[in-house]
Amino acid sequence: MGQPKPIPGGQSFGFASGAGSGHEIGPQAGLKSAHLAAIARRKAREAVDPETCYAGFPDRWRAWLHAHYRSARHVAQAFSVSERAAQKWWDGVGGVNGGKVAYAVRTQPGAAQYLFAAE
Q1: Which residue of 59, 60, 92, 104 has the lowest C-beta tally within 10 Å?
Q2: What is the pTM of this model?
Q3: CB within 8 Å of 43: residues ≥ 6 apart
């Protein structure tokens, strides 16, 4: 496609700021940025190895607990779990129930970014 022909008596702006230039404004700009964000999320998911994520999660959970709670007893109270379960989490032994992780993510700002950060 070539440059558009000037309108007699008018001015031609070419394609530098029009459709397809990457500089759209209005509803198309929102759609484009949403599309780019979706591509970025998909690439981030593809970059995460499930086995590595699974193997490293107890350590991330333990580190997050140590950064946000005073002790295993404090963790037990905050998450309504037994002191034995809280102590295991505190020590980085075993796993945590997904519901407890969801609770942390919903109630603690920054938990998701810390717990699910790229390896």
Answers
A1: 59
A2: 0.56
A3: none
CA angle 8, 13, 15 (to 5 degrees): 125
Instruction: Give the long-range contacts of residues 95-98, CB within 8 A, separation 24 or more.
Output: 95/57, 95/58, 96/57, 96/58, 96/61
Q: Check if the beta carbon of residue 12 is closer than 8 Å to that of residue 23.
A: no
**Residue 86 CB-density burial (10 A; 0-12 exposed, 13-18 middle, 19+ buried):** buried
Sequence length of the chain is 119
Domain layout of the chain by residue ranges: 50-115
**Sequential DSSP letters for 82-102:** -HHHHHHHHHT-S---HHHHH
